[in-house]
BMP family ABC transporter substrate-binding protein (Streptomyces griseocarneus), 169 residues
Amino acid sequence: MRRKSWLAAGAGTVVLVGGVIAAVVLSGDDDGDPAPRARQYSAHSACLLTDGQGVTGREAAPVWAGMEDASLATKAKVMNLPVFGPDTTANAVPYVNTLVQRRCDVVIAVGGTPVAATRDVAGRTPKTRFAVVGDGRTEGNVTVIPRTEGTRAAAARVVKEAVQGGPKD
């Protein structure tokens, strides 16, 4: 008797699994290509250099949000790199160089040390676009994004211009 109940349970399981498989196969949408599972990016990228707090830092958060806004509009990849270690320009310069080597369309820096290192590297890398959040004026290949309520929109504009080949200043 026990053997018959096991066989019945096994047969019921096979029928149930077969029904589920059939339902999944028969309910497929044959009208077109399946929806992409990952976001499709363009060949462009924008990179953010931050202090050790990363994109969650008080000053970096609105810049990162603006970069993400621009990414949605342009399909450009956005990435960030926090500077770890001693809070010195010499320590931050290799991080800037890493982003230059990644061929970012624009490298944006936020925070005292990342900004200083970016300005240093920008002087030696005239073919790369840079943007820094802070004070000063736009010169050469360095755009200044002022610290205001419009930082998010300004960061988005800088990224859009860089990936669309717009003006550097």
